[in-house]
Design brief:
about 110 residues, mainly alpha, about 80% helix, about 0% strand, elongated
Length: about 110
């Protein structure tokens, strides 16, 4: 016979696993990486898409939005270390790489 107490323990373990699998920092890392990839894809084919040099401000805006997303993911990563330490560390490092990448692009454009 299965005791009712055992069933609630199993349900509690499954609910904590599903909560730890859905970290905001990982989701923001994936979203930021996707936006960066799309931005560079669009920038590569900028003239072929019929866009002019006056519209390049949209590329900068998308990179600024991505910077904000990755900064939020970096901060959430520190807050989510208690839920799943390994995934949070991966998210912290990944978001930090994208943040540094943003500063490298800004520094390169100012030179």
């Amino acid at each position: 016979m299965v005791k009712p107490e055992e069933k609630t323990d199993i349900l509690d373990e499954q609910s904590t696993k599903s909560r730890s699998a859905k970290l905001w920092s990982i989701n923001l890392l994936i979203l930021g990486g996707t936006i960066i990839a799309l931005t560079f894809l669009i920038a590569t084919f900028w003239l072929e898409l019929g866009l002019t040099m006056d519209e390049t401000v949209w590329l900068a805006i998308s990179m600024i939005v991505t910077f904000g997303i990755n900064l939020a993911g970096f901060i959430f990563g520190f807050a989510e270390r208690k839920k799943n330490k390994r995934k949070a560390i991966v998210a912290i490092i990944g978001n930090l790489i994208f943040i540094l990448y943003f500063f490298i692009i800004v520094g390169f454009s100012l030179m």
